[in-house]
Write a structure and sequence with these properties.
The structure is a homotetramer of 179-residue chains. The first copy, chain A, has helices at residues 40-56, 79-89, 107-112, 139-150; strands at residues 4-5, 11-15, 29-35, 62-68, 95-98, 116-117, 119-123, 128-134, 172-173, 177-178. By secondary structure, chain A is of the alpha+beta class. The longest helix of chain A has 17 residues, at 40-56.
Amino acid sequence: MRRELAAEWTTAEWFNSKPLTLAELRGRVVVLGAFQMLCPGCVSTSLPQLQRIHETFDPAEVAVIGLHTVFEHHGAMTAVALAAFLHEYRLTFPIGVDAPGGGDVPLTMARFGFRGTPSLALIDRAGYLRLHQFGHFPDLQLGADIQKMIQETGTLAPVGSGQPVGAGKSECSLDGGCS
Amino acid sequence: MRRELAAEWTTAEWFNSKPLTLAELRGRVVVLGAFQMLCPGCVSTSLPQLQRIHETFDPAEVAVIGLHTVFEHHGAMTAVALAAFLHEYRLTFPIGVDAPGGGDVPLTMARFGFRGTPSLALIDRAGYLRLHQFGHFPDLQLGADIQKMIQETGTLAPVGSGQPVGAGKSECSLDGGCS
Amino acid sequence: MRRELAAEWTTAEWFNSKPLTLAELRGRVVVLGAFQMLCPGCVSTSLPQLQRIHETFDPAEVAVIGLHTVFEHHGAMTAVALAAFLHEYRLTFPIGVDAPGGGDVPLTMARFGFRGTPSLALIDRAGYLRLHQFGHFPDLQLGADIQKMIQETGTLAPVGSGQPVGAGKSECSLDGGCS
Amino acid sequence: MRRELAAEWTTAEWFNSKPLTLAELRGRVVVLGAFQMLCPGCVSTSLPQLQRIHETFDPAEVAVIGLHTVFEHHGAMTAVALAAFLHEYRLTFPIGVDAPGGGDVPLTMARFGFRGTPSLALIDRAGYLRLHQFGHFPDLQLGADIQKMIQETGTLAPVGSGQPVGAGKSECSLDGGCS
C-alpha cells in the first residue's frame, strides 16, 4: 500500500479562500484537483465533480482544493482570466494558482508528477498521498474512497482501486496537448 | 437515527440469480432498488446506477438487488418481458419479481411503503433499514453512504443525509402515474 | 439519385391513430421510423427524435410514422406491452405494428430490407423512397433533409448525404442482437 | 415577414480565416453566432452547434461565422486567450472579434441589438436578416431553417418559427450576468 507523505504545494495566489497550506489541512481528507481553465475535460467533467464533492461532504472532514496548473497557453490563462472563469462557472471551493517553475510546467505540478490535466490527488488525514492520477474518476468510486478515508483511524485500507475513466478524452497531457 | 429491521421480501421469481432472501444476505450491505421496466426514470437513471454499484463494490461486501415492483400495466411487464428487457439492457445483478398482493401494488412494495419507482432502500450488515426513499440519489453521496455502511462495526453513523435528486422527473408514483 | 417507389406497409394494429396506409399520405413527406420497444438505442435516441420531428414540423407537410418491427423477443413486445410503453414514454405520433411474416422478421421490415432497429426511411411527397438506413441520424442533417423534401416540386435534390451516426451502438441488428 | 437588411459587422481581428465582410458573403446563407469564450452556455451548447453546422452544410451554400462579442471580463477574454480557447476546443469555423464600442458592449453587438450570449442571427442569400435571437435553438428546427434559406429563390418563406430553448440557462445577458 502506498505510504508517502504528500509534498506541500507552492502557490502564487488564491481564489475563494485565504492562502492555504497542505500542512494546515492536516486532520482533514484533502481532495486536490489539478486543472487548467481551458482544458475541455476539466471544464465539462472534473471541475463540476470537485464542486459536487465540495457541496456533498462536511468541510470539517473533507477539504476540496483546486490547483490551477498551467503548463501551456500561459498568456491566456492568467489570474484575471481565472477570476472571470470561476465567477462564470460558479465554482466556490478554494483554488490556488500553482507557482511558476523554470519552464512551462509549474512547480507543484512537477513536484507531484502530474502528467496533465485533469489530475486528482487524495491526501489522507495524516498527510499521506493515497492516490494521484491523470484522468477522471467516476463519482461512485470516488465517493466511497473519500468516505473510506474519512473513517480511517489507525489502520489504513487501500483507496483508489478503481481505474480512471475517460483518460485520453478531452484531457490535456504534458506530452501531447489536449486530446 | 432510524433503527428498524428491514422486512423480508416476498418474491415470485428471480433473474440473474437463484432465489435469495434478505436473511441470507445478513453480514453484507444490501442496496435494494425497486423499479418497473417501463418506468422511464428507472431505465435512464436508476438501473444503470444499480449496475454501476454492482460493478464497483466487492460482492462479498455489498449485494445489489433489483426488485421488480409492478403496480401498473401488469399485462405489459410480465416475467417474459422482464427477461427480454434484462437481456437487452445488459443488467447482470440479481433481480427478484415482487409477489402479487391483493390489488395493484405488490406485496413487498406495500410492506416497505415504497411510494413509486424508482425507490431505493439501504439495509445494513445487521439487517437494519437505514434509508428508503423515492427518487434518484447522486452517485457521490450514495458511494459514500454505502462505504460508510461497509465499514460499520459496533456504532452506526447516519446515512442518507443527502436529498434524492430528480424526484418528480420521470418517476412513476402510486398516486399519479409517471411524471 | 435513388428513384424507387416505397413499398406499402402491412400492419396488424395502430396506436395514436386510425389505421393509415402509405398511399393515403401521398403528398406529404413521410418519416418512417422502425423500432422495437426493448431496443435501447431506440428508446434513448431514435424515438425521442421521432417525437421531436412530430412536434417541429407541420403535420400537413410531414407525417411521422413509427413502425414496431419486432424481430426478437416476440413474447415480450406484445401489443399490450407496446400500449403501456407508449403511454409511459409519452409518444404521441402514429405507430403501426408491423404484421407477422413467416419467421421472426415481420413483413414490412423484410419488404423494406431494414437490417435492424432503429432504421429510418424518408419517403417523398410523390411516394418515392429517398433514404432508408440502419442507425441514428443527427438532428441537424435530418432537419435539413426533411425541409428539402418539403420544398420539392418538380426536380428532386438528393437527400441523406450524411452518414448515420451511432450505428453499432445500442442498435439491434438482425444478425447480431443488440450491441 | 421580417425584411430588413443585416448590418455589416465591424471586427478587430479574425481567427481561422482572413478578414471577412458580410458583403462578400452575399449569395450564401450566413449563420452568425455571437458568443463569449467564458459564457458556459456558449461553450457547452452553442459553439458545438456552430461547429456541427460548419461540418454539415456545404460551405459554398452556408457560411458559419462566430462573433466574439465580449461585454464583460474584457481583461480575461483577450485575443491571446481566444486563440488558445479555439485551439483547445477545436473550433475551425471563421471567428471575428467584435470591435470595441465606447463602453462595455462592442460595436456589432450593439448594432445588431443582441441581448447577450449566445445569440444567433440568420442572414439570407440576399443579405436580409431573417432571425436574430438570444438563447439556443434546437438542431432540428435550425437544420430546417437553414435548408429553407438555401433553397430560396424569388419568394421568401418565414424562418425561425421555433422558439429558442434554454434561454435563461447558462446564458450571459447584458443586464444580468450569466445565469
